[in-house]
Specification:
The protein contains ten helices and seven strands. The protein has 358 residues and is of the alpha+beta class. The chain folds into two domains: 161 residues, no CATH class; 121 residues, no CATH class. The protein is globular.
Length: 358
């Protein structure tokens, strides 16, 4: 055998060739792609997004090694996906596993009224996803940064000024984070599955690479959106050259049936006489007898220093009408309840005042 091989090589050399000229074809070794989760096969449409989230510790799957891409995503799961990089804590004993991400969201994206702690295990609708996404994008990002407000809203057939979180929905849509459906709808009350949520968060992460949210407070020993200046009316109420919006909704429109109405105030500036005039007019229109007293109490509350990342809450009776104020970043809300309203969470009686910054 050795003699035969030597003879063949000798013939090649004699005719002026070389071993390198032989028609050998290199064959690459087959690549074995490891599954990220047992139920995410190579080529799954969301494999790329899920892999990104797993590598950044935003998802970890289930104990059986599955991801369950078709399962409806919960508030807690979505908050972990979006805010995992902004919480250094682990959940305390007897607290929901997602509580650190919930606390991170309270510092920058939503209030306890928007998303109560008790909702963490429940499915999150797209309108609340939009609220979280809008908060993550930051108050410095406006809808007008992505295009004309009127043209954007014209593309969404089922979102209008009476839709809860309309501004946040339009902002998330305009930024390309939460897309609509082929029929032109957004479906604010619909849910996404875990694979779809992974795609949403992957798009959001690309926009947030250099974005810093308010830092978490670490105890020793332990580990508003500005509005477009385009003359378009993005809410029900009064707009002052894009500097402040008073969005007025009935309780039913705001999905708080127990309310008479809700005023949402963006970019409040107590030094502005024009803004004060607008707010007084909105209160007088709806509660003429208590308007002056409510205005005075709100001004005192809104003018107090609000530490970065903190939320303010104020409860008080005006006559027999309960009223609540809350503040987060540059936004504030006034909740007007019907006369005599009382429930297990209200916690105060006529003549008492409750105020807290947390």
């Amino acid at each position: 055998m050795k003699r035969l091989l030597v003879s063949v090589l000798a013939i090649i050399v004699v005719i002026g060739g070389s071993v390198a000229d032989l028609p050998f074809k290199a064959v690459a070794a087959p690549s074995l792609k490891v599954r990220i989760f047992s139920d995410i096969a190579p080529g799954h449409w969301a494999e790329k997004y899920i892999r990104e989230l797993k590598n950044s510790d935003r998802v970890s799957g289930y104990p059986d090694g599955s991801f369950r891409p078709d399962g409806v995503v919960s508030y807690g799961e979505f908050l972990r996906m979006t805010l995992a990089g902004h919480s250094r804590s682990k959940a305390e004993k007897d607290r929901h596993w997602a509580s650190p991400y919930y606390e991170a969201g309270l510092r920058s994206c939503f209030t306890r009224v928007d998303i109560p702690y008790s909702a963490l295990g429940q499915p999150i609708p797209r309108r609340l996803m939009a609220l979280v996404v809008s908060g993550c994008l930051g108050s410095d990002k406006k809808v007008s940064d992505y295009g004309d407000y009127a043209r954007i809203t014209a593309q969404i057939s089922d979102v209008n000024p009476a839709t809860p979180y309309e501004y946040e929905i339009v902002k998330a849509y305009a930024a390309g984070i939460l897309s609509g459906y082929p029929d032109g709808t957004f479906r604010p009350d619909a849910y996404l599955n875990r694979a779809e949520a992974a795609a949403v968060v992957s798009r959001l992460a690309g926009r947030m690479e250099n974005k810093k949210l308010p830092a978490e407070e670490v105890k020793p020993g332990t580990e508003e959106a500005k509005l477009p200046v385009d003359g378009v009316k993005p809410g029900v109420g009064e707009v002052n050259s894009g500097t402040m919006l008073i969005e007025a909704q009935t309780g039913a429109e705001a999905l708080y049936p127990e309310l008479d109405y809700l005023l949402t105030i963006r970019n409040w500036d107590a030094r502005s006489a024009e803004q004060t005039k607008q707010l007084r007019a909105a209160l007088t229109q709806r509660t003429p007898e208590q308007a002056a007293a409510i205005m005075k109490a709100f001004a005192l509350f809104a003018n107090k220093a609000l530490p970065e990342g903190k939320q303010g809450l104020h409860k008080e009776y005006f006559g027999d009408r309960p009223v609540m104020f809350d503040r987060l970043s540059g936004s504030a809300r006034i909740f007007i309840f019907p006369p005599g309203y009382q429930d297990e969470y209200w916690g105060i009686k006529p003549g008492e005042v409750y105020e807290e910054f947390f």
